Amino acid sequence: MALGFLIPKNFICRYSLRTGATVFGILMSCLMIVSCIATLIQVLSMDSRHSCGGFPWRNAYSFSITAVLYSLIMLAVNLWFIWGLKKEKASVVLSWVVITATWLIQLLCLMIVLLSMYSKEANFSAWLFSIIFTIIGYGILLYGCLIGYAYWLELKNKRRPSTPEIDE
């Protein structure tokens, strides 16, 4: 494997990959719950078109509803991942890794667009802090995906029967 050096052997150099994947699944589930609640509160607190015209209000409202549904779907995926960890289902773990990696790429593109759009309006130090926290957050999320992938490799190798070596 060309990039095998990126795959962690343990979670935080001490705990098993299963423990790390479970911790990360619970963390992601909590993040999705918080995201869903915050976006739902935003949707419920939108007063109908008093602060802006009809078209911008409909766009903001529809994007918020989409974010709530997306958070609920990702919550279901993370709960499914925790269930798959408990049952040691390699296909569930790999599916979670692919879905979460896709979510991370989509989120990265959104962050790049938003940081580009508001770079002129924001103070440079605020823009710099948001870049720094974005990089830190992505590092943590990427590490979690790598933990999930490493655990999938562990499950895959555990299920494969070992073949005895033949001495010649």
UniProtKB/TrEMBL annotation:
- Kindly list the residue ranges recorded as spanning the membrane: 21-41, 61-81, 93-118, 124-152
Which UniProt keywords are listed?
Membrane, Transmembrane, Transmembrane helix
This protein is called what?
Uncharacterized protein LOC113513053
- Organism equals Galleria mellonella (Greater wax moth)
State which gene encodes it.
Answer: LOC113513053
Superkingdom, natural source: Eukaryota
